[in-house]
């Protein structure tokens, strides 16, 4: 059976400049004296795994382990240095939700802007508009410029737009901490509905309890490599034991 997501020998390197110059003049002087002082940061190294249809795979690891980078590569936001990712079906990335919002526009205008960025048609957004606004609980503020929104209000609207469609593949990065505690419960329930609809999910969270309860399998990233992948409970227990050692 072909996986809905196939990650094949993915490596990701970032080029970092060693000389942190403060001006163009300083940069040119250093360039003539020393040449380009570059440092290669190895983020992911030869990563391979598959995710089957309807499966929920969690990614865990310390900060800097490469989890978010892996999600961005699968989403098509980043191109790997080597290797490839094959996805089958529609992909909905819930990464940095508010990045598609324009703070000078109203909430109403941002529903259509952010929805268009996510690939939704204008007709779809018009049909779903009332449902999006009702879920966000921002009816009174929908025609107010978003620069007047709190950060929680921005995230609530962004989540409401992003979660309005049932995709083939859902990619989630730490978005269940949206708004206050009551809205977090509401957003978690929406995520569970998507997960139980047959959608294939890759999910990152620092909450081990979420990993255990929401994932079929878990992959533990450590130093840019997969240290362990398998049953969610077993991998989470191994990870916790390592963290407490």
Could you explain how this protein is built, in words?
By secondary structure, the chain is an alpha/beta fold. It contains eight helices and nine strands. Helix 3 crosses helix 4 and helix 7 packs antiparallel against helix 8. The longest helix is centred in the middle third of the chain and has 15 residues. The two termini are 39 Å apart.
Short description:
The chain is an alpha/beta fold. The protein is built from 8 helices and 9 strands.
Task: Output the helix-strand order.
Answer: EHEEHEEHHHEHEHEEH
**Gyration radius, rounded:** 20 Å
Percent of sequence in beta strands: 25-35%
Instruction: Assign the structural class, choosing from mainly alpha, mainly beta, alpha/beta, alpha+beta, or little secondary structure.
Output: alpha/beta
Residue runs with pLDDT of under 50 for 5 or more positions: none
How are strands sequenced across the largest beta sheet?
Answer: 5-6-7-3-8-9
For the sheet with most strands, the description reads: 6 strands, mixed
Average of pLDDT: 87
Overall number of strands? 9
Percent range for helical residues? 25-40%
- Silhouette: globular
Helical stretch tally? 8
* CA-CA gap between termini: 39 Å
